[in-house]
Structures
1.
Amino acid sequence: MAVGKEIRTKIKSVQSTRKITRAMEMVAASKMRRAQEQMAAARPYAMKMRNVISHLAHAHPEYKHPYLQQGREVKRVGYIIVTSDRGLCGGLNNNLFKISLASMKEWSNKGVQIDACAIGQKALSFFRRVGGNVRSQVTHLGDRPRIEKLIGTVKVMLDEYNEGKIDRLFVVSNVFVNTMTQQPTVEQLLPIKAQSLDATMQHHWDYMYEPEAKEVLDVLMTRYIESLVYQGVVENLACEMAARMVAMKSASENAGSAIHELKLKYNKARQAAITQEISEVVSGAAAVS
Amino acid sequence: MAMTIHVDIVSAEKSIFSGNAEMVFAPAVMGEVGVLPRHAPLLTRLRPGEVRVKLAGGEEEYFYVSGGILEIQPHMVTVLADTAARAHDLDEAAAQEAKLRAEEALKDQKSEINYARAQVELAEAVAQLNALKRLKKKGQ
């Protein structure tokens, strides 16, 4: 019987789509857990660094590092945009682009130029489409981003800051609130804000430096910024996985309801065909007798 | 009981060691340093080598670091270890590479951001997502 052949094929195809989205959901869930662990593991380093730097900021060292000096006149700003490499994660990247655009536009309305740094394939293709002065990029960081891959990319921006080409540096990435909520945020990296260092130090003291304050502080500041960017990347990864999990979950549910509707349609068609056949047989028999 | 000093060894990717120790040895750039409790505050760079932690029981633990920073306060030692081999030249090379990649990927494009175009594109994406949401609500 050839009733509802098309409907049956359609049901099959939706079913196999659902299989894929279900699998993706589960993969994303397990990857999210791992990313969250990585996020937690990266935290102590940044926290310790922040402690050291807050000591420094309050210790009146003989050498004031340029990263700690506020109030440079702003002519050009740098943005590090952290996105995912892959799509199928709901509005995650779009929300991020929206907030970065708003922030960039604010600067450009003041006549400030903008340099960008793209982390992740989506950021790169976004800038490719809409234009923008992209100074450095890195993509395909994988599920376990390593800090090595970020060093060069971040250094380009830090060098620009050191040379006075840019006067502010921001990082835009998603902050993991919980599985359902990811908050895109713009954070200022340079100059390091004094408020972000807690002012708990009462008495004044300074470290001894070996070999020299400048050299040690240079390394320290670079590492600090790198660790902040790294944290942004790892956190963004956790966000990506959470967003994908939610998106795939709702896709699976949608597929379920689509299958339900199609089955209803198919059964109706089948019943109609049977009814018609019976009525044909009955009327045929009536004509003979 | 002997005095102890709190030791944290962390890298950007994970926390490696945390605990109390009697003494810590670390490979500073100016020579190996041994740190006892109540050491004066010191901030120094590390060269690649071994950090030895002498635990309270007299046992020793070894950690290899490929460089980093050592922070000493009277009752606390923090080793901020690097995870990668770092040198000025290496970093420079990595930066050059990142720049090249960017230039390569975005060869023929304007350096001005086209805000209008970007906004249209984002609006489209948002509309698509909203449509999906509505679709889902209707289905329930």
2.
Amino acid sequence: MSQTTPAPHGTGGASAFDGQPPAAPAGDSLTRDAWRRLKQNRAAMCSLVVMAVIVLACLIGPWLTPFELDEVDWNAIGTGPDLASGHVFGTDVNGRDLLTRTLHGGQISLSVALVATFVSLVIGVLYGAVSGYFGGRTDNLMMRFVDIMYSLPFMFLVILLMVVFGRNIFLIYAAIGAVEWLDMSRIVRGQVLALKKREFVEAAHALGVRDLQVVTRHLIPNALGPVIVYVTLTVPKVILLESFLSFLGLGVQEPLTSWGVLISEGKDMMETAPWMLLVPSAFLAATLFCLNFLGDGLRDALDPKTR
Amino acid sequence: MSPTSPMQCAASLSAGLLLSALSLSLGASGCAMAAESSSQSEQILRIANGAEPGSLDPQQTNGTWETRITRDLFEPLIAYSANGELIPGLAERWESSADGLSWTFHLREGLEWSDGTPLTAEDAVFALRRLLTPATAAHNATLYYPIVNARAVNTGALAPEQLGVAAPDAQTLTITLSHPSATLEQTLAMSEAAPLPRHVIAAKGADWTRPANMATSGAFVLKTWSPQAEIRLTPNPRYHAADTVALDEVVYLPIEESHAALNRFRAGEVEIAYGVPASHYAWIQDNLAAALQTYPILGEYFYVFNLREGSPVADQRIRRALNLATRREVITERILGMGQIPSWHFVPKALGEHQGARFDFADWSMDRRMAKARELMDDAGYGPDTPLELTLRYNTLEDHKKIAVALGAMWKPLGVKVTLTNTEAAVHYRDLALGDFEVGRYGMIATIADAYDFLNAFSSDNTSNAPGLSSPTYDALIEAAAREGDVGTRQRQLHDAEQYLLDNDVVLPLYDYVTSSLVDPAISGWAPNALDVHPSRYLQLDTSH
Amino acid sequence: MLSYTLKRLLQAIPTLLIVITLSFFLMRVAPGGPFDGERRLPPEIEQNLRAAYHLDEPLPMQYLRYLGDLVQGDLGPSFKYKDFDVSELISQGFPASLELGMWAILAALLIGVPLGVIAAIRRNSTADYVVMSTALAGIAVPNFVIAPLLALVFGVLLGWLPAGGWNGGAWQNLLLPVVALSIQQIAYIARMMRASMIEVLGSHYIRTARAKGLSEWKVILRHALRPAMLPVVSYLGPAIAGIITGSVVIEQIFGIPGIGRYFVQGALNRDYTLVMGTVVFYGALILLLNLIVDLLYSMLDPQIRYDD
């Protein structure tokens, strides 16, 4: 072990002492600074624009297409893209306009992604940071709770939620957020365990900074890289998980739909009616690409070390 | 019922009973083929069988994917021909008394279990007693309740020895009934009624179905069983017709995904695939037409209305309007497109002997139906401006969803605002049974070819009575049919019961099920039949292909 | 370290007990039962079945009975697969899931880690964009799409590999499911590796190492790689537990006799004993793997200690 021990200070870790303690400055200057740096990142700015277009299309698009969400065209059941009929992206197995449904589904998927990811981010980061920072018995207890949550049969959790609260779209967010924070908390805790022994944290302690501030000002900002990446990985996960909840009857109900539901419907048709898979997949993929480049740009912009 | 010829394949036993209209002329080939088959290469048949069997104990099985295997392993007293007709099995002949209450079955001579132990009438008695023992908890036990004391044995009130079955000698089985039964032969042809190797079960207990332990009476023995991977059968040299069996090995693969089964078939990895994906049906018609086998089975796809007080469809005018406005051909032709038969009746047409009941509006034009439907809705106080809100429940499955969406669209012109709600099957059927629904999807597939099996579900005290029908008229018809020995009278009673369901719009029938399979054209001896039974003993691979 | 490990293993017992208790009651409170199906059973038959599985006893009795059996290593017979005990089903299916899962994880690590490192070193270069876009494609396409696509293209249309089947785990049968299972993991690991490598490369001591004149590769391999693995390792603990217990999608598409299907089918069928069996098994795996992860932390970063 000793011959490969890395740095001169005998430390390794995701971040390190950098002259001055790399704490995030508070308030305005953080956002203004970060924004300035973000604007210089071309991939991130392109993604921002595309993302905005997708969101706008999903919000107002369904009003602009000549079809209703649940309008059945009995003469065009499962037909391919066709300009003449107005079904530019074809129809689904019930003869409903696929573009209209995809845009509508985007409203559900994007809002699930937004809320569930945010919930899992907040709970996961705070929980993980607190657990890692205090360590010892607290850490042990908190992490065993995470282990228990991992082990519970998710499906029964969901079914019971449905029984207790009825069918409700907000429950989807709750259910998904309730499981997705687990990974996040494990990752953040790992980072914090490594970071808390760094010099800048000890320095902050020496200066009498309170625990909560150490966590929020020093530890979390320095664990931000993996967190942001994991957030962008959580988005596709929750969007697809939503379609599984729909299977159980908790997710969206017909005629409403979502990208996850459309994709899982479309997968059976990949050989015979590929547009049913390709159209919603393209929207999902485009969203993910944007989020990732945006995430990377954001990470760079917020990095306390590059300031 | 008169004794029949001891020769297997000689004649179908009760042609009237089963589907002669459906059977192709392949019955004879099933017998002739095997004798001259002496193919050089191994005859290995691989079957994509839909799912892992829950058990290989014939008394614990009830799915088609399970009985397909147990039927290869255990031969009942009465067996099925390749066409699904009843033929002598382990019993070479049988007769019944004039009052239809005592039945005598004569076993073939020299029968042996696959381990060489003699197979006697005691094994048949043992099996029937075991079938009705409460601890066995056999799902279909009620089918055997016509046997004297069967119900009392099954509920634990009497000892199994009190059941009305006996073995006066090693080759004779007698069964005594408490009332005549038109379906006794059919129930005895089910693999759960087959004689069981009591010597093995006594020695091995619950482990008797393991390959190392099991002794069989059918055309095959169990060679290996790897759960979720494969089940291999090899011919049973002690089978009474062993010389007619052509295959060297049958491999059952528990492939659940119909797309996966189609892939395996296209890749030449299986010779038979039971069940094809609806999404590829048109494609298969274009590209694999020679292998596609589609035929009606004894199953009905329908919706039930909740008739209980407080339900919006407790009003019959509304139920009739919905029945009128449902364009069944559109669902079968445009939404499904697999040759399903639109239902203006409730009991599937494939049940040849039971016909006639149908909606009185079946021949109306669509315009006339819609006009009447609007009138009824208007009477009931609903219309486009005063919409009726209705919740449609279905269990999660792509095809169910397609149909539910189509129904919603068809009813919209009546001013019905449909909300669709799907749940997984366990919750769905529980809620339907509890009456916690408005309009709900249902499906029934016959256990035996008998209309009673379908209609009995709506007796007031039946646990399957989801609509909550409570009609003394209906109950009386069903009760009478249960005890009627005369086939003609019984048919009339069942016809009247079915007509009652339709006249009162208890159900919204949509179509008769069909089943579709992919069968390699190199296979001979395979015949479509409404019971969907295809014993491997009749199958042969033409390896010159 | 040894005493810490022992302590954690001891703690696993009460933790598992909580998991078992919660799951047992959670499952039994949920609506729908093992005998709720299209054809409802006559009351006599349902009564026989309930008695056969002791479901007619009061719930607390059933719970104690379950615990008693469990202590003796008896997970009970499956409701759905009646000829087998749950422990048999799991022990017969787990080797296939494990084999498939280990290959997938190995592939994900061997491909994902180098890709992430390369992307981090050549940050914002064409190589970075190509690697990360490919990884993203792997994330954007769910495995219920990738798996049938692979089976269709390579099994059916090209005919290069079997379209399905296990065949005792022959490599031809393993290849497509391993690819389908690992694509997403490769993408995850590559993305996380890149991000944490960028963090580490920007840190003070790496600059010091560079200043000492060490070659860039030496700096990365000797000083940066291990600490950068930290978040990947955090992620892998629970991820491995999920992967080696199988995926119902992959198993159904490729016909693999693993245990992934039991997690989903068990719940859908309300196969109570099977559900509990999977819960116990999965819970034990999670506890074990998260313990291993915690021990690995102190190897990756000697400053992380668990002394108390």
3.
Amino acid sequence: MKIKFLKLKNWLLLTLMGALGVGACHSAKDVAQTPEPEPETQPRPRSEMALMYGVPTVDYVVKGKVLKADGKPVKGLQVVLVNNNIDLTADTIYGNDEYVERYLQKSSDTTAADGTFEVKSSDMPSGKQRILVRDVDGKRHGNIQNELIDVEFDMDNVGGQRSGWRLGTAEKEMTITVKEKE
Amino acid sequence: MRHLSLRKRVALELFRGVRHNDAKIHELRTLFWECTLRCNMHCRHCGSDCKVSSVTPDMPAEVFFKAIDDITPHVDPHKTFIIFTGGEALLRNDIEYVGLELYRRGFPWGMVSNGYLLDADRLERLQQSGIHSISISLDGFEDDHNWIRQHDYGFQRAVEAIQLLAKAEDLIWDVVTCVNPRNYASLERFIDFLVSIGVKRWRVFTIFPMGRAAQNPDLQLTQEQFRGTLDFIRRCRQEDGRIHVNYACEGFLGDYEGEVRDGLFHCRAGVEVASVLCDGSISGCTSIRSNFNQGNIYHDNLWDVWQTKFQKYRDRGWTRKGQCESCKLFRYCEGSGMHLYDENENLLFCHYNRLYQ
């Protein structure tokens, strides 16, 4: 009885909405005109199906060192973990560069005196990222050529806690060798 | 409340009553079945893998039938729609068998598909098994679609599937498109293309990824592009009678409410929509993961869970916090969609703020 009363209330509310000319998930017109299906007729569901795009993510972590060809560590270089599809080269960002630059800053680190760095990113679980190494301080710690390096993670060994859309953490260690600009 | 006309405010107030009554009634109208996590594509915005998952294999059909038998005595099967999702549902070879069993029980059923495996033979078998509805994903012209799907033939096969559906009888179908920065500029041409291949119903989605991926410029529309997408949909609905366009069901859209989709915003997860996920978890919709699971069909009765749980879905007062705490439009939104909450029950994204702030 309570359910029938609530349904009647909804019918009245929807009819008022219809009078305002505003549709709803059940429109007043549908509520008023959809007959009860005969048992032998084809079932008639709502025509709209709810759908959603969820985006599973993986936390990527890259730890490493940046060295020159002679094995000496390089301090002060910016290291960025970049999604595989951002349109850029080692030296140029294409498209909305201010927007992309803001995005890049969220996953960057600066190499310490011993050349070490750690960068993290939460991104789609393709297993492919890139490391962008940029000399952002001019000649202060050497005049280093920017580098853009492909990184591939072992997605069969994603560790850490899975929770909801977060699928875990993929880690990698690497040593990057950079060159001086000529 | 800026951005809302008086007429809309009154309608939203009335619909607020409808939403609350719907939560009290909680009539189960749609049941998603995540029938597989396998997929034959590697969509950039999705995590499904093309190999058989060793963690979550396909649920046996008989297990799902048991869940259906749990609810059958309590619902009108003719009004309860079962939707197969994945992964890619057509990768299950027993879809026709499952569909026919549902049909015999009186349940209408449908599916979401990327269309790759939907040829004439498969469509005929599906129709003979009583399929009622199908949605095909098509995310722009060939380059754009194949880019996001990461498959060289994805577009071709999806279009072939759509052309088959355009000739099919007794089938409700539509195309769903995910708008992203790559295909945004071609929306005007794309709608003409859809009409040319026989599409009459089109649903448009936008992606709001979680975590840092939310900043990904490949998927994340700028504010201008998001508003442009809604303006485009509004214009199509008002002026273009060739095709019926809807924005997705997610998010409260302020002054766009009532103009870009058939209904006003209402997250029906746990109110009229339930899901059985691949591991048996019972949730609201398949986009809502472990943080809001209500049980598991391997040890719970689906109907009992539907009747006695889902409190957080049906009473959204708990969402009045964080960015919602002082929002003057909370009464029309009540915390947006459940899928937008993280594991700590914090709202990750607000559509209204994205539009107007």
